[in-house]
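Work Package 4 report. The design task specified in the project plan requires that, given a folded chain encoded as structure tokens, an amino acid be chosen for each position. We show below one input record used in the internal validation round.
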């Protein structure tokens, strides 16, 4: 059974295959799987998407914890016999923006919980800085915050993988041999 680092960051664009790759990493760990979901349903399309994902995960042996604003509470309660997938940091950031939360405190809190986690955690996040400069101030603030969060997570991660078109590119660390 391959081991993964205490913290792994999987980064990529929208619909790049990053979540599927992250799921394979967690499954390969061979432990109890915990899916920490951060999405919130603000419309019918998102509600349907969430239900579809919940049903799919349940059918494949995932324990799902909904944590749109405080994934750290779930991470702090994980045991050594588990591996968690936090999907995704970008949705969590969106939720924080909508709640007008203190981003610095939230980022520092999450990083602290990850540093003390008893279980390995794979975090999925979007790379939003590769496109054009957004035309409105809120979108630019979001892009800046996402870049800050991604850099904080990457600095602490033992493994950082960028996924594009379903293909993993290791930016830091080494993939477990079973996935390499």
């Amino acid at each position: 059974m391959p081991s993964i680092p205490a913290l792994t960051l999987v980064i990529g664009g929208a619909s790049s295959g990053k979540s599927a790759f992250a799921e394979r990493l967690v499954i390969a760990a061979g432990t109890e799987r915990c899916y920490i979901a951060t999405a919130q349903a603000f419309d019918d399309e998102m509600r349907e998407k969430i239900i579809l994902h919940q049903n799919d995960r349940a059918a494949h042996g995932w324990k799902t914890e909904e944590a749109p604003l405080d994934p750290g509470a779930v991470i702090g309660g994980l045991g050594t016999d588990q591996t968690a997938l936090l999907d995704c940091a970008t949705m969590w950031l969106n939720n924080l923006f909508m709640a007008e939360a203190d981003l610095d405190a939230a980022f520092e809190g999450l990083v602290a919980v990850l540093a003390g986690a008893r279980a390995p955690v794979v975090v999925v996040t979007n790379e939003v800085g590769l496109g054009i400069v957004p035309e409105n101030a809120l979108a630019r603030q979001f892009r800046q915050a996402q870049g800050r969060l991604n850099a904080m997570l990457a600095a602490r991660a033992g493994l950082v993988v960028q996924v594009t078109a379903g293909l993993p590119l290791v930016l830091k660390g080494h993939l477990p041999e079973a996935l390499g």
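The longest strand covers residues 7-12. Validation will be extended to a larger panel in the next phase.
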